[in-house]
Write a structure and sequence with these properties.
By secondary structure, the protein is an alpha+beta fold. The chain has one domain: GMP Synthetase, Chain A, domain 3 (2-Layer Sandwich). 39% of the residues lie in helices and 23% in strands. It contains 4 helices and 3 strands; from the N terminus they run αββααβα. It has helices at 4-14, 46-56, 58-62, 76-82; strands spanning 19-24, 31-37, 68-74. It has a 3-stranded mixed β-sheet with strand order 1-2-3. Helix 1 packs across helix 2 (46-56). It is globular and about 35 Å long.
């Protein structure tokens, strides 16, 4: 089991200047919905973006501390185009 804050930290350590928003879906610390906004995603496919996030949390996934991770990834430009705020 990991906390939402730990998930944020892992992703921010793996992606420079990433904005990370985490929702613990079950309250049990093993199923998360994550939105990541990072300039590191520029020029990368959606699959590549998700692979980058999965690499950042690989250890927690391998140990099954995280069982499920639903991802939404955006570049700063695609995030701005959604009209959402940075605190969403």
């Amino acid at each position: 089991m990991v906390s939402s804050e730990q998930v944020v930290s892992m992703i921010q350590n793996g992606l420079s200047e990433a904005q990370v928003h985490v929702n613990d879906l079950t309250g049990g610390g093993d199923h998360f919905e994550v939105t990541v906004i990072s300039a590191d995603f520029e020029g990368r496919s959606l699959v590549q973006q998700h692979q980058m996030v999965y690499r950042a949390v690989q250890e927690a996934m391998s140990s099954e501390a995280i069982h499920a991770l639903a991802l939404k990834t955006y570049t700063p430009q695609t995030w701005a185009a959604t009209g959402a705020t940075a605190n969403a």
